[in-house]
Amino acid sequence: MLLAGVMVAAGLTMSGISAAELLHARHQQMAQATQPLQSTPGAETKPSAPAEPATTGKRPGDIPPEPARPNPDAQKAGATPALPPAPAEKTAAPIKER
DSSP of 18-77, one letter per residue? Predict the structure, then answer.
């Protein structure tokens, strides 16, 4: 019990010292704003924005999208599916009614 009391007293003492140092005036500091930005030499002759990219990011309209799994007629004609066949589902025995 004596050890616990000593530990509590030490913790309170350390907390009091820390709080006193935080409130002390020598630790107060002023925040300073950054200096205003200066222009780069020769900035008047350089373009301000990069040129537009050559691509627009749109999908070309002349190539139609194709399904991942072609219909059965297309498969008979030789088209291969883009995805492997799905695994068979595991089924359990039907639940019996009570």
Answer: HHHHHHSGGG-----PPPPP-PPTTTTTS-SSPPPPS--SPPPTTS----SS--HHHHHH
